[in-house]
Amino acid sequence: MIRFFKSQQPATLFIIPLIVFILWFQAFFRHPFLVSNNTAPLYNLFLRFLDTLPSFLQVLIAMAFLSVEAIYLNTVMNRYEVLYKSSYLPAFIYVLLMSLSLPLLSFHPVIFAAFFLIRALDKTFALFKNDSPAPSLFDSCFLVSIASLIYFPAATFFILFIIALAILRPFSFREWLISFIGFFLPYFFVSVYFFWTDQLKDGWKNSTGNFSVHHLQTDFVITRPLVSMLVLLGVLLLLSMNLLRQNFYKNVIRTRSNQQILLLFFVIAAASSYVLKIIPLYHFTLLAIPLSVFFAYYFLAAKKRVWFAEMLMWLLVVFIIWNHF
Questions:
Q1: What residue ranges do the domains of the chain occupy?
Q2: Which ranges of the chain would DSSP assign to H, the alpha helix?
């Protein structure tokens, strides 16, 4: 399986939507399919539109989003040489991680928000030695802000961008000012809309109702298959981090900077759960973006014990199937 997705044959990429369809086939029979416990303004807008569509169209739209995100993430990682070798492994692993449990087979806000976050990463990576950084600066912060208006914990990734800006660019007050304007502009527009509709206070209060740093609790049941999956993901993460550490200084500066940004993405995505009063399971799919790259790096760089890496890959697939029953 690893060798198949290592190949750069264009036909390999068309397998990704097929895998999404196979993994998400059960979603056609799930009712309700739309997650409605998120109160972010833009997601509510999307939800009102999606609610008018037949259920099979809702599932197909979710599959299309997931497929596009996987392919786009793969393209970004290959374009900026985050991995030492181009492959389709990041797309394949991203699809697996976004579908690893039956409760995730629903149209949740992270499916929308992840696209804007991947696009923001694309713009952020483009800042390295960029002679005209202003458009990328504004766009990346604007995209993070849009993602946060779909799923509010995504606002914490503005911290990631500020740190990435310090890593990739020398300090410039003008550039930092552009970044803050790009991030707060969508909030200004939403506030104006709330003001016009006479719900400025109540609108933001309802939108941020699930924010709290006290009494953290989850809305999902921790089962034996889920625990087994988490253990396997933890082992894969440790192996990936160890391999990244060993080869870190063998990479060019741009690759090292991009890998640092992805590591910060993982840390902030994990820490963002602390701002929620009730943590849904789909919140942890934010980790799928960096984890898919880290795991792909391990499977690409594992040369001495290829059979062990192949076994872990098949074990991941088996555990996903187990979590779907």
A1: 2-323
A2: 2-6, 10-13, 15-23, 41-50, 55-79, 89-98, 109-125, 134-150, 157-168, 173-196, 200-207, 224-247, 253-271, 288-301, 306-323
